[in-house]
User: Fold this.
Amino acid sequence: GDSVTQMEGPVTLSEEAFLTINCTYTATGYPSLFWYVQYPGEGLQLLLKATKADDKGSNKGFEATYRKETTSFHLEKGSVQVSDSAVYFCALIDSNYQLIWGAGTKLIIKP
Amino acid sequence: DAGITQSPRHKVTETGTPVTLRCHQTENHRYMYWYRQDPGHGLRLIHYSYGVKDTDKGEVSDGYSVSRSKTEDFLLTLESATSSQTSVYFCASRPGQSNEKLFFGSGTQLSVL
Assistant:
């Protein structure tokens, strides 16, 4: 079946550092891909998405590009802030319209 | 964002007792979901609903049941709680199957002692 693999955390960075959180997927066809973010004590919220190969999703300074060749959707941000500290989930939507989730990556940004 | 509220936010219960978690949404979304979140597992789908009285199992449905008597309410019941059901439970909804964005509640922290 379809699956999503994320890099294990926690990822700890200093403020203004460059961020990459890796995400790869296994799927039949070319599913839409998502990054969701979960701030402490809150539910998940959609951060960005991409619906086809080579699409770039972006929001709040975060970006991710749908790479069909490497089946990847890595999340990047050029300069992180303390307020970006959260858990980030990569996900895809399968052929039954169900979301398949990665395990989540906790990001800690130190001032 | 969609108004989704979960209750209670926190609950401590004893092994063997029944527990019901409530999810209420005000957006008239047709699809509703219950997930559990555990370290190292991400989100795992317990049950979902695609309309009033229409529900189906997810990947970790054993020990759980659901009911949806109204569009806005989706209840999750642990028939006889076990320690392995200690988790954070999230409810989510979306307007339709082709609407890919999920809207989440703030979660319920359940501890089974």
Q: What stands out?
A: Chain B has no helices and eleven strands.
